[in-house]
């Protein structure tokens, strides 16, 4: 990674090596009510999020990647406000979440038209703003099959990545659907050096992570603190095992907060949990301080730098 490679943040470009400790898969402003009919995954109050992000900064955090995209009701201008109030860098994503969240008009768009839209968000600005996306994702699919429009979105993301050099991240819960996502992305020309299969820690079979890593793609253990999926102790042990097998340079960690009950203000873990509670568990599992710095700083800085054109 070139130290002077600039990364699009919501307040402008920042050298990748100045991004500090990064949580690469988060949500700050998100609204899923129209699909879920529940207020649990509705985070719309910027001043509340300022308090949450301030706790992350106080714990040593520096950068958050907000992967709130079409279907999740992104609001990049609120991200600017949160960043200004806290001093934390925020990187905005672009893309389309997954089928049940898609706007109706997306189903009639060609791969080329979707590609054009993604590229414009990266090079010109997100809709109605001059705020440039610095990430493509999170791009989701159904958990057991990939629908036709989901496939086109993945293909378009690969094409947009090739044009811009911006990294891609996916949403792949529970099953081995990430392998199917990877197959589509790779066939469409995605650069696996800057492609992430997300939520790998929601599949407790470590061989799934190995299958992905052997193909050269990044994996994200990004459900840290979500104990309904697996314990943090097991996550830490799995990461330690994969590091021992030589995969340190392809692992990312984050908390994927998108629910009110997970905010510290409502009694949840908050974004700081990864730093204050999970990193000690990594140490207890045998991960060194130097390796922890790679997981939390070097790796996310490297992939966010991408391979920009």
Please tag this protein with its features.
309 residues; alpha/beta; TIM Barrel; eight-stranded parallel beta sheet; two-stranded antiparallel ribbon; 15% strand
Task: Explain how this protein is built.
The protein is built from 10 helices and 12 strands. It is an alpha/beta fold and 309 residues long. It has one domain (6-305): Metal-dependent hydrolases (TIM Barrel, Alpha-Beta Barrel), CATH 3.20.20. Helix 2 (46-58) crosses helix 3 (76-86). The longest helix is centred in the middle third of the chain and has 17 residues, at 148-164. The model has no long low-confidence stretch (mean pLDDT 98).
Give the biggest beta sheet.
Answer: 8 strands, parallel
What are the secondary-structure elements, in order, as H or E? EEEEHEHEHEHEHEHEHEHEHH
Helix-strand makeup class: alpha/beta
Strand content: 15-25%
Mean pLDDT: 98
Give Rg in angstroms: 18 Å
- Report how far the terminal alpha carbons are from each other: 14 Å
Which runs of at least 5 residues are low in confidence (pLDDT < 50)?
none
CATH topology: TIM Barrel
Number of helices, counting only DSSP H or I runs of 4 residues or more: 10
The global form is globular
Main sheet: strand order: 3-6-7-8-9-10-11-12
CATH class annotation: Alpha Beta
Overall strand count: 12
Pfam families: PTE (PF02126)
GO molecular function: hydrolase activity; zinc ion binding
Keywords: Hydrolase, Metal-binding
């Amino acid at each position: 990674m070139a130290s002077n490679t600039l990364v699009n943040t919501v307040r402008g470009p920042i050298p990748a090596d100045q991004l500090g400790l990064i949580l690469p898969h988060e949500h700050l402003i998100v609204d899923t009510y129209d699909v879920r009919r529940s207020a649990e995954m509705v985070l719309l109050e910027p001043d509340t999020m300022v308090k949450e992000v301030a706790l992350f900064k106080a714990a040593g955090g520096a950068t958050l990647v907000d992967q709130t995209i079409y279907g999740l009701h992104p609001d990049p201008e609120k991200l600017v406000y949160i960043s200004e109030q806290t001093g934390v860098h925020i990187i905005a994503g672009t893309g389309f979440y997954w089928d049940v969240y898609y706007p109706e008009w997306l189903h009639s768009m060609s791969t080329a038209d979707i590609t054009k839209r993604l590229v414009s968000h990266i090079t010109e600005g997100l809709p109605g703003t001059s705020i440039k996306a610095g990430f493509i994702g999170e791009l989701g699919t159904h958990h057991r099959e990939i629908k036709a429009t989901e496939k086109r979105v993945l293909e378009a993301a690969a094409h947009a990545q090739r044009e811009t050099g911006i990294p891609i991240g996916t949403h792949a819960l529970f099953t081995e659907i990430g392998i199917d996502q990877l197959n589509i992305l790779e066939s469409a020309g995605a650069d696996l050096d800057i492609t992430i299969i997300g939520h790998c820690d929601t599949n407790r079979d470590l061989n799934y992570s190995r299958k992905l890593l052997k193909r050269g793609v990044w994996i994200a253990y990004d459900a840290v603190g979500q104990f309904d999926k697996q314990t943090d102790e097991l996550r830490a042990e799995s990461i330690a095992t994969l590091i021992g097998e030589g995969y340190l340079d392809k692992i990312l960690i984050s908390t994927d907060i998108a629910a009110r009950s997970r905010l510290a203000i409502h009694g949840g873990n908050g974004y700081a949990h990864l730093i204050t509670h999970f990193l000690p568990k990594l140490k207890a599992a045998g991960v060194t301080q130097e390796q922890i710095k790679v997981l939390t700083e070097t790796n996310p800085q490297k992939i966010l730098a991408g391979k920009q054109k």
